[in-house]
Amino acid sequence: MRAMPDSENDSKLELEGLRLASDLMQLAKETLDPDLKEHCLRMAKHWSGEVDEPAKDDTEVDKDSGQ
Question: How many Å apart are CA 18 and CA 7, to the nearest integer?
Fold first, then answer.
């Protein structure tokens, strides 16, 4: 049995995540339970790769000197 190249495997995993996110968004749209809706939307965001990441400081300002 041959192993898939990492890029092909990564693409398949990314596609599966997007499909799961789509299903979760649909469930959030259809449910009347606000807690379930919030959970589904949070999980959809996670699986779609839209996870909040800490902001990067790209201002190139020296924090010690303030310049």
Answer: 16
Assess if residue 62 is contained within a domain. no
Residue 8 lies in a domain: no
pLDDT one-digit tens code per residue, 12-64: 999 999 999 999 999 999 999 999 999 999 999 999 988 655 555 555 545 55
Tally of domains within the chain: 1
Would you state the structure tokens that stand for residue 14, as one six-digit string?
Answer: 């990314």
b/e map 27-51, b = 16+ CB within 10 Å: bbeeeeeeeeeeebbebbeebbeee
Based on C-alpha coordinates, what's the Rg of the chain?
Answer: 19
Is this structure's pTM higher than 0.85?
Answer: no
